[in-house]
Amino acid sequence: MSRSIKMPVCGWLFLPAVLLLLIPAALTAEMPGKKGDEPAQKQASPKVITLEEGIADDVTLPFVPAKPRSKTEQKKIDSAAWYMTGRMREARNDFVGAYEAYKLAMEDNPNSLEIYRVLIRLASGLDKTDEAIQYAQKAVELDPGDYELMRKLGLHMAGQGRFEEAVNFLEKASESPAIDKKSGVYVIIKHDQANLYERLGKKEEAAQCWEVVFKALTKPDDYTFEFNTRAQLEAKQGKLFERIGQSFLETDRLKLAVEAFNKAAESQKGRPGILKYHLAQVYYRSKQYQQALDSLQSYFDEQLQSKGRKAYEFLGEILVALNQSDELIPRLEKLAEKDKYNRTLHYYLAEQYGEAGRFDDAEKTYKASIGESSDIEGLAGLLRLYEKNQKYEQLITTLSEIVQSGEGIRKIQPDLQRMSEDKKLVNALVAEAQKQKKKDPPGVDVFSAFIIAKLAAEAGDNKAAGEFYEYAIDAAGKHAKPQIRGNWTLLILQEYSTLLREEGKYGELSDLLRKAVENPLLAPQRINLMSFLADALERNGETEAALKVNEEARQAAPRFPMLDYQHAWIYYHAHDWDNAIEQIQSFMKKYPQQQDRIYEVKMMLSNSYVQKGDIAKGEKVLEEMLAEDPSSPSINNDLGYLYADQGKNLEKAEKMIRIALKSEPDNMAYLDSMGWVLFKLKKYEEAVGYLEKASKLPGGGDSTILDHLADCYHKLNKNEQAAELWKKALEAARKATPPDTKLIDQIQQKLSQ
User: Fold this and answer.
1) Where are the TPR repeats (predicted)?
2) Can you say how many angstroms the Cα of residue 361 is from the centroid of all Cα atoms in its chain?
3) Fewest Cβ atoms nearer than 10 Å: which of 195, 202, 312, 360?
4) Angstrom distance (rounded) from CA 298 to CA 514
5) Grouped pLDDT means (10 residues each) for the chain, 753 residues
6) Tell me, what's the pLDDT at 148?
7) For residue 440, how many other CB atoms are within 10 A of its CB?
């Protein structure tokens, strides 16, 4: 059963439904004049009645105008026909078909505003955003006075983050000669402009727009507001006045700023302290610092917290301007004594104690305010205090508390990033943690050990990272709560596995995963863990063990394509080409619908044939794939490399590899292929550039890449450099799992020459 596309009731550029009932004059075909004095044409042959016709029906003949139509006239008629087709399809809810018909109508009549309006609406409803914008831009060009369309287009671009373009359209909308500058629409456009200017950092332009909005809000009788527009502005006028006042303040419109802040205070009844806060800003801006301090004190006296930390920072700025910086802590202490439940104030006071070197006071203040709450803001402040004062034991304890708070790690991410970049700090933390884990009971738990492991890994100390990942896994397994034993073990396992994989320590990874597979708390993940274990075993050279684990997993999950794919891959990776080919072909027959995997196994199949020595079959697989997908970078690269390696079709191979390289200029394999085909074309200097770039990328120590680069150096008579690279290539080839004996023999022969 087919599913029709339902258009939204209101798209972003929705046109009134009445437009659909009108056929635009520009699209109406003019009927040719009828000449009554002309004799009727005789039919050349008798009428033949067909099954499609009724007995009494006339044969429908093509309409032939007496006067041949011009190309322009014919295009208008064709456009009208397609337009009506679009209307008919839209009435049947065939919106895709309607859209295509309207596009054809537009091609024949590219200056019809009505067609563009319909296309805008349908393109928006069909999620063809870019096309909707293109049509809207064209419509604006045709009708520069359509300020509503320009506004909607501007807002839509703003929603896409295209702020410069958005504000340009809003400017055009507000400057349109058709817009009434006393209308509510004009005010709303100015409101939108102000928002965008602020986002773009254009404070003066924003303030100019806010002046219009402010005037409209304070003198509404001078404007012709629609009810909805007025209600929209009035619903948020308290915050809006405050925001406008802030804009006026920042652009030195101080008198207007005071007026706006007064209006904000009127809208926020019963909170004069907010007005006093804003007036303090005005006084400060006009360098009346004592008045600013007195006014700010009124805000503090009401024990308001709406301005958060900014209010206390502002107090510090005023005291600096008055040369009374030493009064900051005493004033904060007095405020904190009266406002005991204001955590933001107490944390700021603790921070100031810390800055002043009063560690004990800072720690006491943080802890008293945090209490039993595990509040992240307070714990993060305490963390920084311990870090600054090198209190590593307390820092480790605080890290554990933060991790256990749920969102703690995410919220202190900037702190963790900064800490990981300080190797001296990480080393000190690791040393302290090593002491703490020997205590009874240990001073390091699963949570702090996990974070220390992550910090060590980020700092490049993989040995320490491994030590604490293992400790964290062990601690998680002994934890009293089952969810910690299960969930945290899995989390730490994932992190540690990634580290071991990056280091190529597949033996250690296999041991780790074996334990995980046997852990009953990880039973829901057992099949995935077995798959990872089989992968690690094969990469460690334990092919038989890998096949055994994979077979067990496949028996437990017989309909899991990934496991059958892995079965073929194990043989492929082990260079058991006959079995690899057999399993790949089996996979393709069993899972023809797995297109992404089919693509991958075909690439493996091609290389298996090549490595087995049947190059023709390997080529054929790739050529068939290329015929189906001629723009595929990887297929172009692999087939181009295969041609180059045989020294045939070299110009074609170069073009194919350039297609691949254009898609990913820093792809190591593509760079190697390009270097190799250029080498075969005897363009040695050019080849060296690509191969040197490939060798410097992560993984560039690959034996094949080094061998190719050495060959280039040899051709350029750089024999010492070539010999050094061949030695490195030989070492890399011997370390590979499994080792490439063919390549090893080739390199040894080159070194012996």
Assistant:
1) 79-112, 113-146
2) 44
3) 360
4) 67
5) 33 33 33 36 38 42 64 80 87 86 84 79 75 74 73 78 84 84 87 91 93 89 77 73 90 90 75 85 93 93 90 96 96 95 95 96 96 91 96 96 86 93 96 95 95 95 96 93 90 95 95 94 94 97 97 94 96 96 95 90 95 94 94 94 94 95 94 95 95 90 92 93 92 85 89 84
6) 77
7) 5
Location of structure tokens 């105008």: 65
The angle that helices 595-612 and 633-646 make with each other, rounded to 10 degrees, is 10
Which pLDDT belongs to residue 270? Answer: 53
Looking at the DSSP bridge assignments, the partners of residue 224 are 183
Task: Return the number of other C-beta atoms located less than 10 Å from residue 737's C-beta.
Answer: 14
- What is the spatial distance between Cα 125 and Cα 10, in angstroms, rounded to a whole number? 9
> What tokens appear for 24 in the block?
């635009």
Nearest residue to 413 via CA among 370, 380, 366: 380
3-state secondary structure 341-398: CCHHHHHHHHHHHHHCCCHHHHHHHHHHHHCCCCCHHHHHHHHHHHHHCCCHHHHHHH
Long-range contacts of 747-750 (CB under 8 A, 24+ apart): 747/703, 747/707, 750/710, 750/711, 750/714, 750/726
Q: Classify residue 222 by its DSSP letter.
A: G
Q: Is the peptide bond between 441 and the residue preceding it cis, with omega within 30 degrees of 0? A: yes
Total Cβ atoms within 10 A of residue 251: 18
| Cβ–Cβ < 8 Å for 536, 506 | yes
For 704-723, letters b (16+ CB in 10 Å) and e give bbbbbbbbbbbeeebeeebb
In sequence order, what DSSP letters do the residues of 310-339 get, joined into one string? HHHHHHHHHHHHTT-GGGHHHHHHHHHHH-
Q: Give the containing element (helix H, strand E) for 633.
A: helix 633-646
Burial class (CB in 10 A: 0-12, 13-18, 19+), 219: exposed
Determine the pLDDT at residue 742. Answer: 85
222's CB contacts (< 8 A; 6+ apart) are 182, 215, 216
Tell me how far apart the alpha carbons of residues 475 and 106 are, in angstroms, rounded to a whole number.
70
- How many other C-beta atoms can be found within 10 angstroms of the C-beta atom of residue 333? 14
Both tokens assigned to 725: 């690279």
484, 485, 487, 490: CA torsion to nearest 10:
140
Contacts 24+ apart (CB under 8 A), 642-646: 642/606, 642/610, 642/615, 642/618, 643/677, 644/673, 644/676, 644/677, 644/680, 645/676, 646/615
Quote the pLDDT of residue 704: 92
Residue 16's pLDDT is 34
Q: Which residue has the tokens 């009401």?
A: 302
**Spatial CA neighbour of 539 closest among 573, 502, 575, 495:** 573
Residues 592-619: b if buried by 16+ CB within 10 A, e if exposed: eebeebbebbbbbbbbbbbbeeeeeebb
Measured from the Cβ of residue 94, the count of other Cβ atoms closer than 10 Å reads: 16
Size (the chain), residues: 753
Q: What share of the chain is helix, strand, coil (3-state, %, to 5)?
A: 75, 0, 25
Cβ atoms of 371 and 349 within 8 Å: the answer is no
Instruction: Give the three-class secondary structure for 445.
Output: coil
Burial label for 361, CB within 10 Å (0-12, 13-18, 19+), is middle
Rounded to whole angstroms, the Cα distance separating 573 from 576 reads 8
Q: How far from each other are the two terminal CA atoms of the chain, in whole angstroms?
A: 72
Q: Report whether 601 contacts 587 (CB < 8 A).
A: yes
For the record, the structure tokens of 61 come out as 């003949």
**How far apart are alpha carbons 625 and 630 in whole angstroms?**
8
Provide the token pair at 508. 């250690």
Question: CA 331 to CA 320: how far, in whole Å?
Answer: 13
